[in-house]
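Long-time lurker, first post. I've been practising inverse folding by hand and with some scripts of my own, and I keep getting stuck on stretches where the structure tokens seem ambiguous. Below is the full token string for one chain I'm working on. Before anyone asks, I'm not after the true native sequence, just a reasonable design that respects the backbone. If someone could post their per-position residues I'd love to compare against what I wrote down in my notebook.
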């Protein structure tokens, strides 16, 4: 005996092997057409028959079911419930065969628009209005499928559908996977063997691989766009009120930055003391005077956490209008948070003289590294005949900077770290800082990547005094029991450098305290610390009572965690874009490029001229800094990958072991356009 039953929405047949019970309690051990052993109860069985054979019945029924007119069947069916056998006789006649009955069961089960299932082998036709609605939905679905097919074919042929152009970016970066457009895109990708990004670039919907990388970053971190709301800013009345109580500092401050820097957030001054020695001022732009915790500008800055830098562009943390108001541009007094410390004639820093003020600082000049760096040397600093600006001030700053550096190296050595040498880096070492310039030449983008060798006198002056400022700020917060965002480094491992709300040492820098505060225009951690320091500057020992963040503030702890993850993500994106432009550099003059690389570790090597890291397994067994000539080809700008073929491996005895070390961001340069090391 054979049984007709339903399982998982499908009509199936099985052949009985044994039976037990009787009536409604009857049950069978049976074998399905797939060979599966099953147990069926009487209430689960729609139809029983002995002949024909089950497989033959199913084969014939599958064919017959496709020809059943569902509309005619609906017309023939009674208003009340009906059984499979009853309607089979109405549709096929009183001599309806077993294959016909099974075919009808398949048709009824697969037509929920026309018929509702009411029980074992029983159905009821759908009401007219529901049938009409269901048929309309099926028609719409059919049209969607037809449209999907048209879109799919256009995409395969390299034509992006006109009706989809307005939603192209959404389709790639934030798709609704239930739409016909997305299904057409995926079907086309399956047919062509391309990724969605590859296909859309080929179709012209996405301009380039660069647009893809940028779009993925914006989707993750700026889903509502990177532009600032023009209505959010600091109006002139609020600015005037914020600076009205500030005293005018008796200094002539100057900044030192790259020529492309637009966020000038730190400056220096040197004032001679009557009793001998000099007073050094480190002046930090003070947007914290006008931006208050939880106000609209704070919400903008907290959401963004930092300015995102990448070759060719940046996304600023604060609106341009606010940056212009507080940037330490030359010509006028600017609101600043100043830290002063005295140095003697030998350049020794007296930390007991440390003081901090919120004030207006006269900005005398914005010095540019490109114009001065090659002029400043040990000899020119003491040569009264040298004519470059601020020679005397730079000489005093340099003399003290050497002492600051030496003091940090003593602590590094005490922490078990190798002391760093002051001065220009070893000529054999790989450069770690670069300027990326993207230019339009004859309608095509070309990239110039120029290494910037760290360690010059001018560079070191800025770096050491910014490090001192961050250290002094951390000390002031710690001494007064104020929480802040402290950058700490202790021990070893990937998590040894972290952001925390309580003071701690930074072993890598050789400091007892370190709190970022020198870049409040571009980094939220610095703005938060500035609020705490402004409270300290204005209220002294009572600062804890009025500071925006009291001790053990849960909000501050959350900011520390959010900033850490966001800052890391922005850094990874900067690295990604730098790799993109390095690969563009490699192919801009042809399909291949011959370059020299240095092996670093585990088969990973770096191109000497640019910050491009490439896996080269052939070099994995060679010593660190082994030099090789290679050909770079088959560059994929979407995957950011390339094929490398080794031409020659140089074997030199006593090869330099020096390489750009993985150093914490705090002692490397500021991103791309910013020269100050902090």
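-- Answer (accepted) --
I ran through it position by position. Result:
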């Amino acid at each position: 005996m054979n049984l007709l039953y339903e399982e998982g929405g499908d009509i199936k047949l099985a052949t009985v092997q044994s039976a037990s019970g009787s009536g409604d309690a009857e049950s069978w051990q049976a074998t399905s057409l797939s060979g599966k052993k099953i147990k069926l109860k009487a209430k689960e069985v729609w139809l029983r028959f002995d002949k024909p054979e089950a497989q033959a019945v199913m084969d014939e029924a599958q064919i017959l079911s496709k020809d059943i007119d569902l509309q005619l069947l609906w017309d023939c069916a009674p208003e009340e419930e009906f059984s499979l056998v009853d309607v089979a006789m109405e549709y096929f006649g009183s001599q309806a065969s077993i294959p016909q009955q099974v075919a009808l069961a398949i048709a009824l089960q697969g037509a929920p628009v026309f018929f509702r299932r009411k029980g074992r082998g029983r159905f009821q036709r759908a009401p007219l209005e529901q049938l009409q609605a269901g048929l309309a939905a099926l028609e719409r679905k059919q049209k969607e499928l037809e449209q999907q097919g048209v879109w799919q074919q256009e995409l395969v042929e390299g034509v992006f559908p006109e009706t989809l152009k307005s939603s192209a970016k959404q389709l790639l970066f934030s798709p609704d996977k239930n739409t016909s457009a997305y299904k057409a895109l995926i079907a086309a990708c399956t047919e062509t063997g391309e990724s969605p990004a590859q296909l859309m670039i080929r179709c012209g919907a996405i301009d380039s691989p660069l647009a893809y990388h940028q779009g993925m970053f914006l989707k993750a971190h700026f889903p509502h766009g990177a532009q600032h709301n023009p209505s959010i800013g600091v109006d002139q009345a609020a600015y005037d009120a914020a600076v009205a109580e500030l005293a005018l500092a008796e200094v002539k401050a100057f900044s030192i930055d790259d020529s492309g820097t637009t966020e000038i957030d730190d400056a220096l001054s040197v004032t001679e003391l009557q009793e001998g020695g000099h007073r050094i001022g480190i002046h930090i732009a003070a947007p914290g005077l006008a931006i208050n915790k939880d106000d609209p500008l704070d919400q903008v800055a907290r959401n963004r956490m930092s300015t995102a830098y990448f070759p060719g562009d940046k996304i600023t943390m604060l609106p341009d209008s606010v940056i212009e108001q507080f940037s330490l541009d030359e010509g006028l007094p600017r609101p600043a948070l100043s830290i002063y410390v005295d140095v003697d004639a030998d350049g020794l820093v007296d930390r007991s003289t440390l003081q901090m003020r919120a004030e207006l600082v006269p900005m005398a000049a914005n010095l540019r590294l490109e114009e001065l760096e090659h002029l400043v040397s040990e000899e020119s600093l003491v040569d009264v005949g040298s004519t470059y600006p601020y020679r005397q001030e730079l000489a005093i700053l340099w003399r003290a900077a050497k002492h600051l550096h030496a003091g940090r190296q003593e602590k590094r050595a005490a922490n078990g770290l190798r002391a760093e040498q002051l001065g220009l880096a070893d000529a054999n070492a790989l450069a770690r800082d670069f300027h990326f310039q993207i230019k339009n030449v004859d309608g095509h983008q070309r990239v110039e990547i120029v290494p910037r060798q760290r360690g010059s006198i001018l560079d070191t002056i800025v770096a050491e005094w910014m490090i001192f400022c961050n250290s002094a700020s951390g000390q002031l917060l710690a001494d007064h029991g104020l929480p802040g965002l402290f950058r700490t480094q202790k021990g070893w491992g990937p998590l040894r450098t972290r952001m925390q709300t309580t003071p701690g040492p930074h072993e890598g820098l050789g400091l007892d305290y370190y709190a970022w505060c020198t870049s409040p225009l571009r980094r939220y951690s610095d703005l938060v610390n500035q609020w705490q320091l402004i409270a300290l500057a204005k209220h002294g020992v009572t600062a804890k009572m009025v500071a925006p963040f009291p001790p053990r503030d849960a909000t501050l702890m959350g900011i520390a965690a959010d900033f850490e993850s966001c800052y890391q993500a922005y850094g990874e994106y900067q690295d990604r874009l730098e790799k993109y432009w390095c690969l563009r550099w490699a192919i801009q003059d042809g399909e291949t490029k011959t370059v020299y690389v240095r092996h670093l570790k585990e088969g990973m090597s770096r191109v000497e001229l640019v910050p491009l890291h490439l896996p080269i397994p052939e070099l994995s067994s060679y010593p660190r800094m082994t030099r090789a000539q290679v050909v770079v080809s088959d560059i994929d700008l979407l995957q950011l990958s390339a094929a490398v073929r080794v031409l020659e491996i140089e074997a030199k005895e006593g090869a330099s072991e020096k390489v750009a070390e993985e150093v914490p961001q705090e002692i490397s340069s500021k991103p791309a356009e910013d020269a100050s090391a902090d």
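A couple of notes from the structure itself: The mean pLDDT is 87. Residues 554-587 form the longest helix (34 residues). Happy to go over any region you disagree with.
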